[in-house]
């Protein structure tokens, strides 16, 4: 009896010690005191030399942490354990975080370098007036195809995917917005369309694509395309540039009907403790020379117009990653369609997936 | 010859390069008798059983059944049935279906199965237990189910592999009677394996004493008890006093430094021998009247007799079964008849032993 | 009297962690799932999810989940039973068993990725087929590869209970059956199989129930050409964030699992 009581006491004591340690660890993380800045970014998404440069120029010590999905980042910020001063979510997540009051408004007077950002990429639907976010990198959704496997055939349009010669050759991303968007775009509709008739038409059009679809996969699409498991894939431009560096036969195209335009953006989450330093860092990253260096390192498209001047011509003139103004006009950012419409998109996508059998 | 049902001719069983489990064994089993294979564990007695049942094959030699070689006949085609040491009843079947198992495999008609199963169960006094599950049966009842399951197939031979070893003493004695009675009623051959010499003596028509893969001696319980062929048999069957000695001449033997008269003859003069005297053949008497003098070391009351243990002055141990009481520490005399001395030659085979016995039984009858 | 009371108290105290565990991690989640299933996507109390479950899309999905789970279980059983039987006959059976179980310690994702490599157009399987003169085949993203990999992943869980029940089987029972005239096949049919049926049942449970809700492999190995209830739950929770519909499907899965448990656990035998 006594033993049992003691046993429980020990357990209670041990739990208390653990809880205390965890909470003290949490507060110590983020260095709420000193002259520091905690950044929460995607993995391998910054030239680390620039962090050193920033530290040298400002005397602020940078703590750099990474995440691998918007959802994971959201959870950590919602918990509030770590005091992140800057995070880099994608546009749809910004909309969500904005509505959940997880972001602090930016003081644009402290961001003089903001003027270098291309006006095309400012004031978009997910954050009107750039009240909370500044674009960091951007990209598109398009088609990666293997020139060698397709014997030099060029794909330029979404409708090229319906070519019977591509039987069992196409890999699709497992994303309702991306695949449904492809269907809508191919019919000339907006990829934010919510008209039921248009959506059903898109789904039915997609159903006719099934003989050409080899599989609908996740992240492994990069590996599968690089290994020539299939000759055509629906991918994000970021992934495209990554696999094109692995396999020279691959090419990327943004279909002429238009496609999705996506952004990763710098924000200051509600948990931030060093708001001044955060603004300094954002402004630093907006500097054209810094942005150019960072873009060359990361390989994505920069929204910084001035930075293009400091970059090699062959990158800047690559229409695959810096599409012509004519094509850019046809690119659309995903609007937050609301839960109900999103559910309908997913429902149709699910039916499409069942149709592949 | 017709009475022989099973015959082993120079059978050897050997696994890989281990010493043989059974070494060049030959014997005959006659119809309708109760046989016991007796020996310590690992002696090869169960191997003989498994060779007859067909669970294993002989490495060398022939196994004959009704005069036909059956070395390669699989177990399920042999007309023998086994009662296993752990009964090996099928736990997923009830009593009835356990007994019916063999009949069902023969695709016998249901009515016929029913008649035979009921008959077999009443034979082993288990009428009314048909629908019981095996786990609801006691050890003794399981034993009977196992027997019923064997006899219902009407085999010519039933093999019993230490079937009583799991039962308590009282039940075991009861089952000994029942088994013997059952064998008489059925009139078929029982081959019973045991390491319990009392069980063997009580039940058998014939006993095979087995040790180290060889049959040491075979014969009726009385023959084996009275005339053990060697130290092993004498020691294994019943209790005995065994000392080394020397045959001086016919009818005269020397042991514990004294000469004694005996009834044995036909041995070489001065041949070294082993002497056996059974404890019940020793009689307590006054010190000076005894042929042997021993000091009583311990005494146990065994019910029908006292078991007295003493040592002579050479340090040989003598065991005495006597209805008379002795006092521990006393020196007593032991008396025995010359018939009580049993002389065993070293390394004598069973045939040689039989020949010698026949020789002097002739002399005996001639003499009388 | 006092000691008895104390014993009772101690017993209850020992029971406490178990009850707490059951309440927190078994009962509470099931109740939560049930609770969420009554809300539509906009958070209104409704039965729309249940209505939706009985539309052709979800019924077809349920049927195909069942069909694949059945195939996976049946094939696993067909391979596992003889394997387990052979294992009990080998000399170092525990070692062999360990070798079969070790792969189940490897992360499922790793195994799936390995199979993408093996079954790919330029993978080991196709090089072998080329070598045999059969030529390259589409293996990845087919029913075959899905069932093959699923069986590979589940088979240790099928072998283990069957091995245990075979291992516990008293070998003299086989001698006894043989002695009573049963051939090898009859012995298997009338003695070995009935006596190991419990192992077979728990093996089938352990395989069928998770197979019913497989989701990762449906994407990695079957390229979403196989859609199961598990895939759909994953999508509803993670992508659509329609927790109500996800929960509704989960409710049906739970009901199905309970039914399977009850059906396969009808009778226990043995001494």
Q: Would you give an account of this structure?
A:
- The complex is a heterotrimer of chains A (357), B (368) and C (271).
- With 357 residues, chain A is an alpha/beta fold.
- Chain A has 2 domains: 10-137 and 263-322, D-Maltodextrin-Binding Protein, domain 2, CATH 3.40.190.10; 139-261 and 331-355, Periplasmic binding protein-like II (D-Maltodextrin-Binding Protein, domain 2, 3-Layer(aba) Sandwich).
- Chain A is 41% helix and 15% strand.
- Chain A has 13 helices and 9 strands.
- In chain A, the strands form 2 sheets. In chain A, strands 4, 5, 6, 7, 8 and 9 form a 6-stranded mixed beta sheet that branches. In chain A, strands 2-1-3 form a 3-stranded parallel beta sheet.
- In chain A, helix 2 links the parallel strand 1 and strand 2.
- The longest helix of chain A has 27 residues, at 2-28.
- The model of chain A is unreliable at 27-32 (pLDDT under 50).
- Chain B has 368 residues and is of the alpha+beta class.
- Chain B has 2 domains: 4-226, P-loop containing nucleotide triphosphate hydrolases (Rossmann fold); 242-367, Beta Barrel (OB fold (Dihydrolipoamide Acetyltransferase, E2P)).
- Helix content of chain B is 28%, strand content 32%.
- Chain B has helices at 45-53, 95-105, 110-123, 139-151, 169-186, 197-203, 221-226, 231-236, 350-367; strands at residues 4-13, 22-30, 34-38, 60-65, 68-69, 80-83, 157-161, 189-194, 206-211, 214-219, 241-249, 252-255, 258-261, 271-277, 283-285, 292-301, 306-311, 317-322, 331-335, 342-345.
- In chain B, the strands form 4 sheets. Chain B has a 6-stranded mixed beta sheet with strand order 6-7-8-3-9-10, with helices on both faces. In chain B, strands 13-12-11-14-20 form a 5-stranded antiparallel beta sheet.
- Chain B is globular.
- Chain B starts with a strand and ends with a helix.
- By secondary structure, chain C is mainly α.
- Chain C has one domain (25-264): Orthogonal Bundle (MetI-like fold), CATH 1.10.3720.
- Chain C is globular, with a radius of gyration of 23 Å.
- Chain C starts with a helix and ends in a 7-residue tail after the last helix.
- Chain A binds chain C through residues 1, 4, 71, 168, 171, 174-176, 214-218, 220, 223-224, 227-229, 339-340, 342-343, 346-347, 350-351, 353-354, 356-357, and chain C through 6, 9-10, 13, 41-42, 57, 60-61, 64, 113, 116, 120-122, 138, 140-141, 219-220, 222-227, 232, 235-236, 238-242, 245.
């Amino acid at each position: 009896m006594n033993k049992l009581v003691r046993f429980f006491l020990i357990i209670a004591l041990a739990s208390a010690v653990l809880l205390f340690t965890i909470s003290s660890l949490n507060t110590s993380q983020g260095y709420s005191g000193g002259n520091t800045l905690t950044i929460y970014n995607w993995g391998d998404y910054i030239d680390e030399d620039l962090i050193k440069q920033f530290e040298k120029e400002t005397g602020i010590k940078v703590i750099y942490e990474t995440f691998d999905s918007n959802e994971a980042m959201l959870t950590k910020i919602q918990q509030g354990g770590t005091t992140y001063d800057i995070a880099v979510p994608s546009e749809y997540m910004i909309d969500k975080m904005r509505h959940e009051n997880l972001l602090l408004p930016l003081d644009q007077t402290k961001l003089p370098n903001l003027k270098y950002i291309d006006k095309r990429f400012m004031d978009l639907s997910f954050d009107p007036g750039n009240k909370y976010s500044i674009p960091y990198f951007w990209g598109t959704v398009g088609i990666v195809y293997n020139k060698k496997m397709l014997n030099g055939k060029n794909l330029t349009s979404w409708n090229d995917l319906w070519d019977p010669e591509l039987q069992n050759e196409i890999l699709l991303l497992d994303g309702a917005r991306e695949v449904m968007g492809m269907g809508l775009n191919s019919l000339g509709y907006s990829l934010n369309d919510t008209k039921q008739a248009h959506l059903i038409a898109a789904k039915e059009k997609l159903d006719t694509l099934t003989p050409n679809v080899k599989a609908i996969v996740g992240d492994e699409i990069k590996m599968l395309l690089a290994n020539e498991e299939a000759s055509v894939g629906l991918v994000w431009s970021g992934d495209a540039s990554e696999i094109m560096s692995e396999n020279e036969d691959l090419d990327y195209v943004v279909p002429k009907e238009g496609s999705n335009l996506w952004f990763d953006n710098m924000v200051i989450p509600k948990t931030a403790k060093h708001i001044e330093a955060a603004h300094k860092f954002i402004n630093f990253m907006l500097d054209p020379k810094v942005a150019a260096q960072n873009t060359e390192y990361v390989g994505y498209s920069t929204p910084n117009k001035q930075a293009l001047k400091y970059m090699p011509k062959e990158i800047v003139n690559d229409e695959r990653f810096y599409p012509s103004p004519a094509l850019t006009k046809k690119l659309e950012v995903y609007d937050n369609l609301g839960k109900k419409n999103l559910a309908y998109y997913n429902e149709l996508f699910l039916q499409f997936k069942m149709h592949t059998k | 010859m017709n009475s022989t049902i099973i015959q082993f001719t120079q059978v050897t069983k050997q696994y890989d390069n281990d010493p043989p489990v059974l070494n060049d064994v030959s014997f005959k089993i006659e119809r309708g008798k109760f046989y016991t294979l007796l020996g310590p564990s690992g002696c090869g007695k169960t191997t003989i059983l498994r060779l007859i049942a067909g669970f294993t094959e002989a490495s060398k030699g022939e196994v004959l059944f009704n005069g036909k070689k059956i070395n390669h006949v699989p177990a399920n085609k042999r007309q023998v049935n086994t009662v296993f040491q752990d009964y090996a009843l099928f736990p997923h079947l009830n009593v009835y279906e356990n007994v019916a198992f063999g009949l069902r495999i023969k695709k016998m008609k249901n009515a016929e199965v029913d008649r035979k199963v009921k008959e077999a169960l009443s034979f082993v006094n288990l009428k009314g237990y048909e629908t019981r599950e095996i786990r609801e049966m006691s050890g003794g009842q399981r034993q009977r189910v196992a027997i019923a399951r064997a006899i219902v197939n009407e085999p010519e031979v039933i093999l019993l592999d230490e079937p009583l070893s799991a039962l308590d003493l009282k039940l075991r004695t009861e089952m000994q009677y029942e088994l013997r009675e059952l064998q008489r009623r059925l009139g078929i051959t029982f081959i019973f394996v045991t390491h319990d010499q009392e069980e063997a003596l009580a039940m058998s028509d014939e006993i095979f004493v087995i040790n180290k893969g060889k049959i040491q001696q075979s014969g009726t319980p009385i023959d084996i008890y009275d005339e053990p062929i060697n130290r092993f048999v004498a020691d294994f069957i019943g209790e005995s006093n065994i000392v080394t000695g020397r045959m001086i001449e016919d009818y005269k033997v020397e042991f514990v430094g004294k000469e004694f008269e005996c009834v044995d003859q036909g041995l070489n003069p001065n041949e070294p021998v082993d002497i056996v005297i059974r404890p019940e053949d020793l009689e307590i008497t006054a010190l000076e009247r005894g042929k042997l003098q021993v000091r009583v070391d311990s005494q146990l009351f065994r019910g029908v007799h006292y078991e007295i243990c003493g040592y002579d002055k050479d340090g040989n141990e003598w065991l005495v079964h006597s209805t008379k009481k002795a006092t521990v520490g006393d020196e007593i005399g032991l008396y025995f008849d010359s018939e009580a001395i049993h002389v065993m030659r070293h390394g004598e085979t069973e045939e040689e032993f039989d020949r010698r016995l026949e020789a002097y039984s002739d002399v005996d009858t001639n003499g009388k | 009297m006092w000691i008895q009371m104390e014993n009772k108290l101690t017993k209850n105290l020992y029971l406490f962690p178990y009850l707490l565990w059951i309440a927190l991690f078994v009962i509470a989640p099931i109740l939560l799932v049930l609770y969420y299933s009554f809300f539509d996507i906009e958070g209104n109390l409704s039965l729309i999810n249940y209505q939706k479950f009985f539309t052709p899309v979800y019924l077809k999905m349920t049927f195909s989940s069942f069909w694949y789970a059945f195939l996976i279980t049946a094939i696993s059983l067909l391979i596992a039973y003889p394997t387990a039987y052979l294992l009990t006959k080998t000399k170092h059976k525990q070692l062999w068993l360990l070798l079969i179980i070790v792969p189940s310690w490897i992360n499922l994702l790793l195994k799936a990725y390995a199979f993408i490599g093996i079954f790919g157009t330029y993978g080991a399987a196709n090089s072998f087929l080329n070598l045999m003169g059969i030529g390259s085949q589409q293996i990845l993203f087919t029913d075959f590869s899905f069932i093959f990999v699923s069986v590979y992943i589940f088979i240790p869980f099928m072998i283990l209970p069957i091995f245990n029940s075979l291992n516990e089987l008293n070998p003299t029972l086989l001698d006894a059956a043989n002695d009573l005239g049963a051939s090898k096949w009859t012995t298997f049919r009338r003695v070995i199989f009935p006596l190991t049926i419990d192992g077979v049942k728990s093996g089938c449970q352990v395989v069928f129930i998770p197979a019913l809700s497989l989701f990762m492999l449906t994407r990695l190995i079957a390229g979403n050409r196989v859609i199961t209830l598990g895939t759909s739950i994953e999508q509803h929770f993670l992508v659509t964030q329609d927790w109500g519909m996800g929960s509704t499907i989960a409710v049906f899965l739970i009901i199905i699992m309970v039914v399977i448990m009850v059906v396969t656990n009808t009778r226990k035998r043995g001494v």
